[in-house]
């Protein structure tokens, strides 16, 4: 555990000048010994408060027993010899208007289970066993990155309906993710939050895993165990806004402090949340310190930064807004914060990945700062919208939208992309993924299998939300466990088998991941067969030379001996058919996989393939030597 920094002028000055990237070592509650006396030292930032005291189990919540001393630069401090590990506490803050409120510790590392709001003094050691993993973790630009997005409270529950402990989840989740072949999990709703229905996106504890599922050490056990299985851990992180709950950050010292004062800049009407004031160094350091806390202390391997677009634009989802100093719509302070965040994280936590959920065409999101924002990856929201829009259409009309599936190739190397089908796509009457597909139940599953195969075969890292791997027919419900009984039913098991096979191909075939972010990683063979809604492209490893051809038939029409150009002759083998019986298909056979010398589609040879309805085939030349880059 880190030793507490002294609450002196020098360290406080470093925080206000944005030179202290771990302010949690200075503020919050720290078990210390002062002048030979054991106790807890408390520190808090409340520059406009008239009075602050610390109340808790150690003084019967009496606000007169432990007043805090006003320090330099608007900070307050107190040493309480009677306080101990495990005791609850709050800061009692009297604002300039004379009103007094009890506040959660912004730097608290453990909290009561909601709806209670007290912070808990916490000072427990944890023994890690993942040194090897930590020494070699990587953002994975030329490696397979396949992410299973999980909401732990609803992934699985105890028999009595209560949340499972992090330690129990570690084994059950780890075994399942390892079986499916994912490289990472992404956890949403982990940081402490008061309202279950926010899914964890309205955070009150930026330095604490939610106590719903256990202690900080329980959460560390989860991360440590996943690392032992070769599985990385990414967390959703929300530096764009925070809830209006009076016990949290809102008007912390009786005035707008963590948030912008003007509601035209500091309040999200859509989400009923406050927006952080990125012009204050203390706020910027609070957020950067939170990021480093998770990456360094909790050994988390990456952060997915939520709602970046809402941070970048002053007019985001509002009619009244304040232009920047140049008269523009960009939030220059937020942009500077994001650049600083990524610079500090990449220096202090090398090998970690920072991913932006950014839905606009803002340039340079994954360009290193100072020229860009400095993220490692960006969610491919355009790819998601185009592909879902295409697959949701009746196949009769798909020919009129043929190039919705080819458009991503126009810009796919402009950023480093994650192809994400997240929780947002299976809620609020959007239907689950399989139920978005047109037709009867068989056609829906066939269409969904084709969608998944194209997603995995397309350049870019992968992310799929829980439940969609076994074709959950209902929308996600955060209040209950996934319908696990469906996963063993043949129709659903077939989709799960496909996801496992796709992860296996993605991880073991370098042509499917080495050049995810490079132009040479993909070559269109047939992008213009509008009438038949057939697509063909080659995935390539430009260094090792491995390649495979992907063919998609996206109508419910069987196409016999369809010609597909390939770059060399000889025999080919079928690596994958989404129509295979093990995936829930008919099992259409390919009578001849020998390339003919006649050129086709600009290639020197061609194959004649039987294309099942709503299917994807993947083929590779027989006899190729594959050296897997999966580490």
UniProtKB/TrEMBL annotation:
Its EC number is 2.4.1.18. It comes from the Bacteria. Keywords: Carbohydrate metabolism, Glycogen biosynthesis, Glycogen metabolism, Glycosyltransferase, Transferase. The active site is at residues 306, 357. Pfam families: Alpha-amylase, Alpha-amylase_C, CBM_48. It catalyses: Transfers a segment of a (1->4)-alpha-D-glucan chain to a primary hydroxy group in a similar glucan chain. Residues 149-500 form the Glycosyl hydrolase family 13 catalytic domain. It is an enzyme of class 2 (transferase). Belongs to the glycosyl hydrolase 13 family. GlgB subfamily. Catalyzes the formation of the alpha-1,6-glucosidic linkages in glycogen by scission of a 1,4-alpha-linked oligosaccharide from growing alpha-1,4-glucan chains and the subsequent attachment of the oligosaccharide to the alpha-1,6 position. Monomer. This is 1,4-alpha-glucan branching enzyme GlgB.
């Amino acid at each position: 555990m880190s030793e507490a920094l002294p609450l002196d002028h020098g360290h406080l000055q470093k925080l206000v000048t944005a030179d202290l990237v771990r302010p949690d070592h200075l503020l919050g509650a720290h078990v210390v010994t002062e002048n030979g006396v054991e106790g807890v030292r408390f520190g808090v930032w409340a520059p406009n408060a008239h009075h602050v005291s610390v109340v808790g189990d150690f003084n019967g919540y009496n606000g007169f027993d432990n007043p805090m001393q006003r320090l330099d630069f608007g900070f307050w401090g107190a040493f309480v010899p009677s306080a101990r590990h495990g005791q609850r506490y709050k800061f009692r803050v009297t604002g300039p208007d004379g009103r007094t409120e009890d506040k959660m510790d912004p730097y608290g590392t453990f909290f009561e289970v909601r709806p209670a709001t007290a912070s808990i003094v916490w000072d427990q050691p944890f023994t890690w066993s993942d040194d090897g993993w930590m020494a070699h973790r990587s953002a994975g630009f030329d490696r397979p990155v396949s992410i299973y997005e999980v909401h732990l409270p609803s992934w699985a529950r105890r028999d009595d309906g209560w949340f499972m402990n992090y330690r129990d989840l570690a084994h059950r989740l780890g075994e399942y993710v390892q079986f499916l072949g994912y490289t990472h999990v992404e956890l949403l709703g982990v940081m402490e939050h008061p309202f279950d229905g926010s899914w964890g996106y309205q955070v009150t504890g930026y330095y604490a895993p939610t106590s719903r599922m256990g202690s900080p050490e329980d959460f560390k056990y989860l991360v440590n165990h996943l690392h032992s299985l070769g599985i990385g851990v990414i967390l959703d992180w929300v530096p764009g806004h925070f809830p209006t709950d009076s016990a949290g950050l809102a008007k912390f010292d009786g005035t707008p402090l963590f948030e912008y004062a003007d509601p035209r800049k500091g309040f999200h009407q859509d989400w009923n949340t406050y927006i952080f004031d990125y012009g204050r160094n203390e706020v910027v350091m609070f957020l950067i310190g939170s990021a480093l806390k998770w990456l360094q202390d909790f050994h988390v391997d990456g952060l997915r930064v939520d709602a970046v677009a809402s941070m970048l634009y002053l007019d985001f989802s509002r009619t009244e807004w304040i232009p920047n100093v140049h008269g523009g719509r960009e939030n220059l302070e937020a942009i500077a914060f994001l650049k600083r965040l990524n610079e500090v994280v990449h220096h202090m936590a090398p090998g970690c990945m920072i991913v932006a959920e950014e839905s606009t065409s803002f340039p340079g999101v994954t360009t290193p700062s100072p020229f860009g924002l400095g993220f490692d990856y960006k969610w491919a929201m355009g790819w998601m919208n185009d592909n879902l829009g295409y697959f949701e259409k009746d196949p009769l009309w798909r020919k009129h939208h043929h190039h919705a599936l080819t458009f991503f190739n126009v810009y796919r190397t402009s950023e480093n992309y994650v192809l994400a089908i997240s929780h947002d796509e299976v809620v609020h009457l959007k239907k689950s993924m399989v139920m978005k597909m047109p037709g009867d139940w068989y056609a829906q599953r066939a269409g969904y299998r084709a969608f998944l195969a194209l997603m995995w075969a397309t350049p870019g890292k992968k992310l799929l939300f829980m439940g969609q791997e076994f074709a959950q027919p209902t929308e996600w419900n955060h209040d209950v466990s996934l319908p696990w009984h469906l996963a063993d039913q043949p129709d659903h098991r077939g989709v799960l088998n496909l996801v496992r096979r796709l992860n296996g191909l993605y991880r073991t075939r370098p042509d499917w991941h080495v050049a995810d972010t490079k132009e040479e990683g993909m070559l269109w063979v047939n992008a213009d067969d509008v009438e038949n809604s057939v697509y063909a492209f080659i995935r390539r490893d430009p260094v090792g030379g491995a390649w495979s051809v992907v063919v998609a038939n996206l109508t419910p029409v069987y196409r016999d001996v369809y010609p597909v150009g390939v770059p060399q002759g000889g025999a080919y083998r079928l690596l994958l058919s989404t129509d295979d019986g093990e995936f829930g298909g008919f099992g259409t056979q390919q009578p001849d996989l020998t390339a003919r010398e006649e050129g086709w589609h600009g290639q020197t040879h061609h194959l004649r393939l039987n294309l099942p309805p709503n299917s994807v085939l993947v083929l590779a030349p027989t006899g190729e030597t594959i050296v897997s880059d999966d580490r």
